[in-house]
Structures are given as C-alpha cells and as structure tokens.
C-alpha cells in the first residue's frame, strides 16, 4: 500500500471511520498472520493473536504519529502480543498439557512442511512466513523488521537453506 | 560434494529469488546445466518454493476468516469488542484438555438426562413434515457431519457422525477423539489415539425402556425432537418454503420445542434430508447450535466401526455411571457439592440451565476469592461505567459525521459527493473540539482499564492452572461431579406434579437453619419433606409449610 493512501486511511481511522480501518486490515492481514505464524508456529494461535493485534491496532491508532508507518507499527504490536502469548504459554508447565496442545495445534494441512517449519529457529521461520504471506516482498519485511533489504535477503536465504536441510533429513526432496 | 558446488549451492538460493546480477546468474545456470548435484539441489529448492506457496494458498482461507472476524468486531459497539474481555468458553475450548473434559461433561449430562426423557410415536404427523422426516426416522444406518458451534462468531467444531441401529453411534473429531456410544450395551467408549488412552463409561442401573430413548446419541436426539414436534399439537411446525442449499432446491420446516428451534431442510424432489439445524437443550450455553449435514442414509457400514472393544496397547480407565432413578439423597448431595463449589450459595433454580452456572462457577471471574482488592474492583467498575458513558457520548457526537461519510462513499454523482464532503467538513468543524476532549478523557481512562483487564486475565490464568492435571484424572473428576449435579436436579424434575415441589434456595447461604430451600410431598404422604439451608430435613404438616 502506498504511503500516501495509508496516511489518509490512518487519519480517517483517527476520526472514527471504522470502514477506513477495513482497508488497512485487508492490506496487512497477511503480514500480521505471517508474523504470528512465524513466531507461534501454529495456525490456531496465530489466528487468535492476529485478530487481537488487528483490533488493538484500531483501538490504539491515536498513538500512531506517522500514518505512513502503519505497517511497521502494526508489526511491533503483533510481535509484542506474540511475545506476551509465548510467555503465557510457558506458564502452562504441565508437560501433558503442552504435548496435547502441540498435537491439537498441528494443522492437518501439509504436515511434513509444518513439521519442518516447527523445527526451524524462530527467526528463520518468521522471516520465511513473512516473505510468503506478505507478497514475497523483501521491502515489506525490511519495513517490519526496520532493517535493510540486503539483511532480509540474507535471512531468507539462510532460512531456505535450513528448511531444505530439515526436509532432506526427514526424507523430503 | 566438491567445494565449488557447495559455494554454488549457496548462490542458488539467491538465483531463485532473482537477486543475483545477470552475469553471475548466467554463469551459475551454465554450471547447473552441467552438474547433476547442483541441478538436483535447484529442483529441490524450487519444490520447496512450490510447497510453501501451496501451503500459503491453503492458509489464505484462515487469513480471509481473520479479516472477516476483525471487520465484524469493528462493526460492533465498542463495549462488545472482543479485545476487552476474555471469554470463559474461549479459554475452555483453547485447551485440548479442558475442551475434552467439557465435552465429557456434556456426554455425561446427556446420558443422565437421556435416561429420563421419552419420545413418542410418529402417528398423527403433519403430512408434509412427516414425508421429509421419514427417511431420518426409519434409516437403519446413517453417516453425516455434525458442526457444533459453542461460541457465536467462532468457527464450529466439526465431527464425523455415524449411526447404526439399534441405537449405536460413533462420533469422531479429527481423529483425536473417537466416541462410540451403545446404549443397548450401556457403554460409552472414548478413544484418544494420540495418547493411546481409552475411557469406558459403564452405565449402571438403566431401566430397559430407556435404552432406546437416550438422547446421548445425537441422531436419536434429532429423531426424538422430530417425533415430539409431530406429536405435540401445541407446538407449531412451520413450513419455511423453498431455499437453495448446497446447490440443491430444498424445502424446510421449523419445529419449535420449549423455545428452541429445529429446522429440517430436505431435497424438494427426493425428500431426503440435506441439513438439520438444531440447538441442544442439555448443553450449558444457550448459544450452542448443532448443524447436521452431508447425510447418507441406509448405506453399508461395518459393524467394527461401532465396536466397544479397546484396541491393543491402550491404557484403559473405567468409570461407572449410576443412572437409576434419583432419590432424595441425591438432591442433598447435589446441594452439598454445589454449595462447596460456589462459596456457600445454592443454585438459582433447579433446572438444566443452572448447570451451566455451576460449570462456569470455578472459572468465571470474580465468582470465587481472588486477589482482587475490593476497592480496586469498585474503582474499576466506576472507571468502566464512566468510560462507557463517554464512549456513548462520542458515538452520538460523531454519528452524523459518520453517516455523511458513508453517504459520500456510496454516492457516484460528483455534485452530490462534493456536497456530502462539504457537509462532512462542516460537521467535523462543529464537533472536532468536543470530540478531542472526549477522546482525551477516554485515553486517560484506558490505562486503569487496561490494568484492570490485565488483572482479570491473570485471575483467569490462575483458574486455568486448576485444569493443569492429567486428562484421566480430570475426566474422572468431571464425571463424579456432573453425575451428582445432574442426578440431584433430575430428582426434582422427575417428581410428579401432585408432589407440589417448591424450590426457594436462590440467595440462601449454606448453614441457614431457619430457611427452607426445598419441599415436596412424597407419594401417599400426609406431610411434606422440607430441606433447610443447613441441609437438615424435617417432615412438616402442610399448614406449617413456608408461605
């Protein structure tokens, strides 16, 4: 989304125009979900936290000073909520529950791939999910991580390599 | 692998993302065309890329649902925003363990209530309705899907259901939990393949005449409701006309029973069922809906699907469920357990809806002693009320402007758009100062509100810890508790009308020796049995009963 339009939508949201926020939700839901999936590793929790993050984006939008920076700002909200969620999950110490949760949370779609993604280091999984869920744009990821595109490219390559190694070990091609 | 290939494979990663300079890319391609190892690596990476893309494509459904949920939530009033509250049911359903324990509680309640509820004959039915429900009533076998929705606005849980005469049912949830219910045998077997755990509930003391009428079996429950709708002249069966459902022309009937709807949609030509939408009265939440669809009737099903034998290697836990006719002692035991669990309070009523209150009691915020300071609680309440008041003012103040904006967006005429925009600007000018003040106030309040919400979340988390125990233990505890509760309530529910039973326990605290909470007249008795707030019992003459 171009910065000018983004700025206008954010300004309308500040004026209480909920429909303007719909535009932002549609533009950023993939990115938000990608971050959650990357950080949390399962789609059920990712969906929940992504929903919380997008709603929090609306209620807190008056705190966003530069409307054209909505992408990076919502990215920070998502990351913080994911961290908060992970902390809360650690609270559940009982191994049985954790095992049961892990079982429940594995979606039936592409089990081998999901299994391999779960074995990736969190930062690699995150960059990979963000890349695929947010239009394969290294620029968007650079914006989210507030880093350079070159650094993002390196991280994606590393993540792809790690994923290949895991799939190879597991017998994938 | 040669070192040169190792280096090249590093660069292949860049090649597939088109980030290599053209000259370098050409060199690389040349090498790959000559080198089987590098060529294989490139193909593997391209395969990974496709796999990831396909996975993301599939997950787009989730993203679309996410968008729609967020947009729905935004369109609600501010006080309804899901962010501001944590749903008890959401917490239950998020944990496989608590979800399973809750599901078990539901099965137990269903078995117990099912023992005492009876269907009728199918004679005298509304003819057209009878035509469309006949296949359901007469099917020897059936398969179908069951979507159970516990929380409005959240995705449903989908089960695969199978039915086979006489009275056998298999329910499967994503291969995680399989329940086989056979009331003729008086057994419910619950298998959890992942944990290799089985739970066997043996139903004891069940009267023979109840075996076929138990509504524990969801298919039977639908049959029972259909029969009831057909039999009862006071209940209306309403024709809903034709509708397109799953690409087929369907005719529908609505049957109402005790304020709850059941809608049956059947193919307009074959009259075979397409979809049955129902609510189940035994569940603890009034928003629970059950939709059965994808029916296949009278097909070959293997008997082994309904086998009560436990597969090898499973850990088995057996429990007994007493379903004999409840007695007065059951009512006393229920009162005792209820008051122990709810800080000395008696149920507000003796009906099945109150069970919901009991199940939620240990979970629900503020219902038990938590580390909330009373002053803090009060101040939160005040802040919340004030916040709602200001929020309402903000809504009212900005309503005309928001309407103008909507009209502006809808309008396609340039002149009209211009006018609307101008009106919007004027309205904005008029209201912006006041709006700023209101928003500032709301902003100032948000901090204490968020802090209070965080305390609520923490309190719920502490409660959640109670469920942090092995599943068999949790299920056993659930079974013990729910059996006592349901039997106690059923004792009252099953008393005949001439027993003149009364319940007056609402707002009474345990230990109140002078307050009668329940009384009834046993069959052929001159006096009444009266239960007091301290759970003592006396025989009392009619003239000395509480007024």
Provide a descriptive summary of the structure in words.
The complex is a heterodimer of chains A (173) and B (547). In chain A, 78% of the residues lie in helices and 0% in strands. Chain A is an all-alpha fold. Chain A has one domain. In chain A, helix 4 packs across helix 8. About 9% of the residues of chain A have low confidence. Chain B has 547 residues and is α+β, with helices and mostly antiparallel strands. Chain B has 4 domains: 70 residues, Orthogonal Bundle (Arc Repressor Mutant, subunit A), CATH 1.10.10; 232 residues, outer membrane lipoprotein receptor (LolB), chain A, CATH 2.50.20; 116 residues, no CATH class; 83 residues. In chain B, strands 7-8-9-10-11-1-2-3-4-5-6-12 form a 12-stranded mixed β-sheet, covered by helices on one side. In chain B, strands 13-14-15-16 form a 4-stranded antiparallel β-sheet, with no helix packed on it. In chain B, helix 5 runs parallel beside helix 12 and helix 10 packs antiparallel against helix 11. About 10% of the residues of chain B have low confidence. The interface between A and B is large, with 58 and 59 residues.
**Roughly what is the average pLDDT of chain A, rounded to an integer?**
79
Distinct helical segment count of chain A: 9
Q: So what's the CATH class of the largest domain in chain B?
A: Mainly Beta
Structural class of chain B: alpha+beta
Tell me roughly what share of residues is in helical segments of chain A: over 70%
The quaternary structure here is heterodimer
Spatial ordering of strands, largest sheet of chain B: 7-8-9-10-11-1-2-3-4-5-6-12
- What is the CA–CA distance across the termini of chain A? 36 Å
Can you count the beta strands of chain A?
A: 0
Q: Which regions of chain B have little confidence, pLDDT < 50, spanning 5+ residues?
A: 77-95, 113-127, 281-287, 363-375
The amount of beta strand of chain A, in percent, is under 5%
Shape of chain B: extended
What is the H-and-E element order of chain A? HHHHHHHHH
């Amino acid at each position: 989304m171009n910065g000018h339009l983004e700025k206008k939508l954010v300004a309308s949201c500040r004026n209480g125009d909920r429909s303007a926020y719909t535009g932002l939700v549609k533009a950023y839901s993939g990115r938000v979900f990608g971050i959650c999936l990357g950080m949390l590793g399962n789609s059920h929790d990712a969906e929940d936290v992504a929903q919380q993050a997008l709603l929090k984006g609306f209620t807190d939008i008056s705190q966003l000073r530069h409307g054209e920076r909505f992408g990076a700002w919502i990215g920070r909200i998502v990351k913080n909520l994911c961290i908060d969620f992970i902390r809360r999950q650690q609270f559940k110490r009982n191994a049985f529950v954790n095992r049961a949760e892990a079982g429940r949370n594995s979606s039936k779609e592409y089990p081998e791939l999901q299994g391999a993604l779960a074995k990736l280091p969190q930062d690699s999984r995150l960059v990979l999910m963000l890349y695929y869920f947010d239009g394969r744009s290294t620029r968007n990821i650079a914006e989210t991580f507030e880093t350079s595109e070159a650094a993002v490219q390196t991280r994606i390559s590393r993540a792809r390599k790690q994923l290949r190694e895991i799939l190879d070990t597991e017998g994938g091609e | 692998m040669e070192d040169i290939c190792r280096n090249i494979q590093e660069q292949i990663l860049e090649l597939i993302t088109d980030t290599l300079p053209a000259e370098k890319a050409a060199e690389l391609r040349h090498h790959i065309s000559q080198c089987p190892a590098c060529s294989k690596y490139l193909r593997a990476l391209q395969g990974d890329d496709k796999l990831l893309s396909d996975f993301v494509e599939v997950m787009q459904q989730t993203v679309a649902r996410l968008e729609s949920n967020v947009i729905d939530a935004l369109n609600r009033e501010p006080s309804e925003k899901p962010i501001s509250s944590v749903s008890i049911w959401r917490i239950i359903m998020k944990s496989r363990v608590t979800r399973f324990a809750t599901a078990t509680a539901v099965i137990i309640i269903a078995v117990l209530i099912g023992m005492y509820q009876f269907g009728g004959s199918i004679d005298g039915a509304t003819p057209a309705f009878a035509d469309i429900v006949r296949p359901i009533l007469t099917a020897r076998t059936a398969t179908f899907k069951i979507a159970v929705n516990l929380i409005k606005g959240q995705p449903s849980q989908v089960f695969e259901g199978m039915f086979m005469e006489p009275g056998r049912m298999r329910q499967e949830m994503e291969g995680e939990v399989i329940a086989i219910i056979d009331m003729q045998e008086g057994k419910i077997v619950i298998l959890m393949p992942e944990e290799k755990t089985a739970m066997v509930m043996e139903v004891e003391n069940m009267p023979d005449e109840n075996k076929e009428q138990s509504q524990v079996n969801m298919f039977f429950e639908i049959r029972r409701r259909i029969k009831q709708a057909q039999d009862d002249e006071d209940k209306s069966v309403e024709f809903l006309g034709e509708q397109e459902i799953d690409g087929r022309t369907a005719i529908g009937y609505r049957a109402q029973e005790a304020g709850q709807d059941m809608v049956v949609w059947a193919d307009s030509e074959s009259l075979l069922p397409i979809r049955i939408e129902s609510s189940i009265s035994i569940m603890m939440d009034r928003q629970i809906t059950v939709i059965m669809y994808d029916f296949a009737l009278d097909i070959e099903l293997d008997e082994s699907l309904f086998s009560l034998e436990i597969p090898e290697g499973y850990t088995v836990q057996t429990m007994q469920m007493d379903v004999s006719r409840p007695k007065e002692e059951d009512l006393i035991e229920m009162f005792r357990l209820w008051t122990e669990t709810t800080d000395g309070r008696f149920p507000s009523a003796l009906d099945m809806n109150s069970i919901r209150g009991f199940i939620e009691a240990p979970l629900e915020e503020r219902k038990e002693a938590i580390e909330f300071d009373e002053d803090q609680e009060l101040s939160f309440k005040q802040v919340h009320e004030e916040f709602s008041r200001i929020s309402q003012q903000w809504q009212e103040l900005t309503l005309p402007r928001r309407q103008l904006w909507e009209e502006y967006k809808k309008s396609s005429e340039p002149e009209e758009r211009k006018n609307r925009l101008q009106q919007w600007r004027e309205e904005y000018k008029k209201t912006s100062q006041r709006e700023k003040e209101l928003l500032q106030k709301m902003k100032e309040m948000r901090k204490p509100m968020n802090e209070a919400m965080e305390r609520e979340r923490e309190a719920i988390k502490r409660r959640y810890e109670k469920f942090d125990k092995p599943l068999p233990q949790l299920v056993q505890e659930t079974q013990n508790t729910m059996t006592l509760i349901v039997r106690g309530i059923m004792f009252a529910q099953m008393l005949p009308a001439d027993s003149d039973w009364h319940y007056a326990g609402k707002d009474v605290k345990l230990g109140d020796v002078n307050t009668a909470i329940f009384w009834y007249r046993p069959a052929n008795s001159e006096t009444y049995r009266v239960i007091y707030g301290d759970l003592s019992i006396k025989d009392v003459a009619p003239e000395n009963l509480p007024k």
